[in-house]
PCI domain-containing protein 2 homolog (Daphnia similis), 474 residues
Amino acid sequence: MATMNLNQYLREIQSSWESRSGTEVSELLSFNHPHVMSSKLTAEGFEKSAERLVESPLDELVILHLRCLNCVNQQKYLEAYSEQSALVQAFTKLFQTQKEDNWALFIMYVISLDLRMFAIKADKELAKKGADKPGQTLEKAAECLMGLFRVCAADNRSSDEDTKRWGMLYLVNQLFKIYFRINKLHLCKALIRAIDASQFKDHFSLSQQVTYRYYVGRKAIFESDFKSAEKFLTYAFERCHRECRNNKRLILIYLIPVKMLLGHLPTPHLLRKYDLLQFSEVVQAVREGNLRRLNNALLQHDAFFIRCGVYLILEKLKVTTYRNLFKKVTLLMKTHQIPIEAYLEALKFMGVEDIDLDETQCIIANLIFENKIKGYISNSHNKLVISKQNPFPPLAAIMKVCRGKEISVSSFNLFTLWCVDRPNPAASQASGNFAGEAVARQTSTCFSLKNNEIDRKELINRIKNEFFTKLATI
């Protein structure tokens, strides 16, 4: 193929077109096919030869392809993109005229992929020239692909076997790759609605479904919809071919942080198998409730996490780490009425600097609000009163996900209106005794904490002598 001359190429593509062989024509229009290595295809006069040996309307596509190849050979990617864009637009018009027929879908797949790749190279070329707007060529490429998508989506009269709608998901995946690259995820919504409404939603090829759910899962992460993200990314990981290790690794880069936010920590074996040991220290820090170790792990591999776009998600694990730390403190104290100072001293030991009692209460209020702790804060006694039954519910069982509602110290007073000195409804339902105690506490009739008061010095000594020696074993 690398030594194919122009006449051989033209006769072969014409023959494939006449036999309506979409796969063969697509190969001869693809830049991943060996024919592009032949310098003879772009010899002088190739356009006239194409007009003579190839019938209309194929001749226009062939000429544009060879023009594009000529530009690529000269490494003129801006011009190559222009020729490929013209090819896609010409094919779109031709494709629309092929009623009740979809044999040309394979051609569409190839030319749309090449269009996106040339757009990326063209944008890099523009960036070297100091272009003001990054990704402008990719935006234009997306407009071309949307033209093809409309043709496919509008083919409602053909039979299920011959409809062009089978090409919708491939184009959606190409558009997803563009929108993620240029950071315009809001444009994905209409495409997702179109696929969800398609009768072929669960019948597209598995490879396309895996790609689709990978991107939908990533979009769900940006929207803090971690339950949906887990569902889509898990589907993609489990059904991705086992030999596609790089793709499975790519899925795990996003699935692991989501799973961790929902309380599922990856095993060391999984991290080793897919060369993702960057997460190893993060996992250990969250498991131990070790804030210092978590901060160090994020700092050590920040370049990797930022490049992958998961750094901010991993930072959300600080809340989970607080929860795990406070759970260990609670287990050590062996009471359902824990002084806030116990949590404060644990935070200080774990390297949290410049923290005081109010801020510690704020962190606890945040955990109560997110249902990660069942209980309430007794502001007058500076204690956390927890449910006697399952005060730290499994993260995976918490259905309510608080989206973007982080609590700062300045908002603490607002939370005292409904978190402090008030029982958590979920906690009240979990234990009849706890609910009764909460009512007594609010009416100030018989809920006394005096017998459980712990002197500050005694508390600090107890934490230092007992808690920190046992922390890693709980």
About this structure: Strands lie at 337-339, 375-378, 383-386. Residues 16 and 25 are 6 Å apart (CA to CA). The two ends are 66 Å apart (CA to CA). Residues 320-473 form a domain with the Arc Repressor Mutant, subunit A fold (CATH 1.10.10.10).
